[in-house]
Amino acid sequence: MSDAFDMSGLRSWIGRTRVVEDDISLAAVRRIAGMLDQDPDSYRRGSALPPHWFGMFFADVARQSAIGPDGHARKGEFLPPIPLPRRMGAGRRARLHGVLHVGDDAAKVIEVAGIEPKQARTGLIVVLTMRQTINARGKVIAVDEFDAIYREAVPPGTQSTATTPIPAPADEAWSDPVLLDPVLVFRYSAVTWNGHRIHYDADYAREAEGYPGVVQNGGLTMQLMLEAAMKRAPGPLLGFTARLRRPLFVGQTARFCGRAPEGGRMACWVAAPDGSLAAEMELEFAA
């Protein structure tokens, strides 16, 4: 597998770091609150933010001339030059040590933590793991590891193959139906400065990547899972793990479900319209 391309060159990226600074501005916070259907005016300078909002700041801002054909920054700009054309989020593991406040001068240290080629049922993939450490007010706020999967191109005119569907659990204690509204997806992409064309360009999604339509943003799916779970939180959030199983598509209505908290933990998941498991998450809370 690793002979398919120069893994030694790619692995030289492991351990590389860079820093993205951000001021946690009132305007940005209010845009996020409005996007998540909260009262924007409930936030003021100095307000503590929900602990799971840290991932919606610190965007990579590439020059327009550095954008690749998929809407991301070209490989080698911010991320390793993995020579597979299709990139999708796969999962996260986060530990929370504090919260951001409106007005913080904060920074995210980004480290290339792993690059691993694998032979999947759908062909060669490479899993890229990025470790992100959020700092503010002289202390660590969160450590977040994010996995992205790079995949081979699909032949023109063919559909992207997905993993074999797994039925979503049927023992939920709560369930929230959520319309994956195109305006919500647009607003999330704007807030996070995500230009990936599969999230707004239906022709590109179908013709270049083999999807049946515009793809729901996986980061938004995870954020909505967190929002749903935090409505039932038994205590302060300490961390979470998440995995994206199958793509969802804009315009669908998905069910965000979960079990009652037990022993400081809560399991939640997303059921696609066909009843398959689209995403899952486990959250850990302080007593």
Task: Write a structural description.
The protein has 287 residues and is an alpha+beta fold. The chain folds into two domains: 1-153, Roll (Thiol Ester Dehydrase, Chain A); 163-287, Hotdog Thioesterase (Thiol Ester Dehydrase, Chain A, Roll), CATH 3.10.129. 16% of the residues lie in helices and 34% in strands. The chain contains five helices and ten strands. The protein has helices at residues 7-11, 26-35, 182-192, 202-207, 218-230; strands spanning 17-23, 86-96, 105-120, 123-136, 139-151, 174-179, 237-244, 253-258, 265-271, 277-285. A hairpin with a 6-residue loop joins strand 8 and strand 9 (265-271). Helix 2 packs antiparallel against helix 3.
Brief description of this entry?
By secondary structure, this protein is of the alpha+beta class. It has helices at 7-11, 26-35, 182-192, 202-207, 218-230, and strands spanning 17-23, 86-96, 105-120, 123-136, 139-151, 174-179, 237-244, 253-258, 265-271, 277-285.
Strand and helix map with partners:
Layout: H1 7-11, E1 17-23, H2 26-35, E2 86-96, E3 105-120, E4 123-136, E5 139-151, E6 174-179, H3 182-192, H4 202-207, H5 218-230, E7 237-244, E8 253-258, E9 265-271, E10 277-285
Antiparallel strand pairs: 1-3, 2-5, 2-7, 3-4, 4-5, 6-8, 7-10, 8-9, 9-10
InterPro entries: HotDog_dom_sf, Mitochondrial_HTD2
Protein name: N-terminal of MaoC-like dehydratase domain-containing protein
